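note to self — DONT lose this again. spent like an hour looking for the file last time. sequence + predicted structure for the chain T wanted, 118 res
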Amino acid sequence: MSEHDPTSAEERRRRDPMSMSNQPALQTSTGLIWIVVGGCFAVASLIPLVMLAVAGGASSPIAIVTIAAVVLLYAALVVLRFAIRRRPTRLWWMAACMLMMAAVALVGIWVSAIAEAR
């Protein structure tokens, strides 16, 4: 292939074992790892959120909404495991759910902390 061939860069990227998109968790996994890690993360993020919700302070409504969002995103991650047949597509969507779950939990805990500080 010449360097002017538009697929040459794509072929090199596909063969690069260090490329993020070529990692086993995004190419050959069954998806179980995403379910296990996502579940562990959900539990770890729900512990402080539940404590904030039960405390009944100013951050309680924020914590409750964040809890619901984290649980829904984890449920979506599990549903995606069985709903999408094509493996790379399924794994990419599961990874996206995990990242969204992390972002939602981070922002929810951060906003709850700000609400409690006031």
